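Hi Y.,

Following your request, here is the sequence exactly as I used it, all 256 residues.
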Amino acid sequence: ASATSLRITVENLAAPNGLAITPVFAAFHNGNFDAFSQGGAVTAGVESVAEVGDSSGVAGELTAADPNAVSVNIAAAGNGVPPIEPGEIGQAILQVLNPSSQRFLSILAMIIPSNDTFIGNDDPTAFEIFDGTGAFNGPFSIDITGLFIYDAGSEVNDPTDGAAFVAGVNGALGTSEGGVVTQGLFDLADFAGITTATGGTLDGSLIDFAADPAGFLVARVTVEAVPLPAALPLMLGGLAVFGVVASKRRKSAVVA
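Below is the corresponding structure, written out as tokens. Let me know if you'd prefer a different format.
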């Protein structure tokens, strides 16, 4: 399979004063990276995403599960503020050099404002971007609905205690919950009417994802193949030639 350049676009579909999301962590892997499991304890890396939007820890967990995986963080474009606010779009280009072993897409991002609410796909093989031969299966348009919203179970839900991206609240604090990852058993009604860190006022009518999870739209993720940078095929070709030359040299040395 040949290297493929992907353009990943994230669009926040919320109306003004709806929910925002932190930069989206997008990982392409072989299927062994199971970021979280409903009913299980959250990992340290995913907890960090869910509580403060930091993906550095989960990037390490990705590498441990699949050393050949690649990932990218997708932030809002052009406004200088990382979160993707209602109506905003983020975009990134990623080169996938080994599509047959980097077939599946996993995404993670924090729902803001919240204590430990996040979006992600529980099934690591839910989004098969490339087939087993490395052929691109797309383009894709993936609607992230309330079915992808989870509570990490790591911090008590309280907008006045450790909730990130709430004006006047220290998001680094919060009361430990010691629970497990749950889906559809909670809501963010207590956050209605609060002022967010970016100056908006959260509209309670726009945050009820528990009533109709499948119909609640959070974001849309699109994945498209785009032309590789002009220099990359030449570089890969050069590496292939180097490998052939090195192989011939080793054979000559054996004959000698």
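Helices lie at 44-52, 56-65, 231-255.

Thanks again,
Q.
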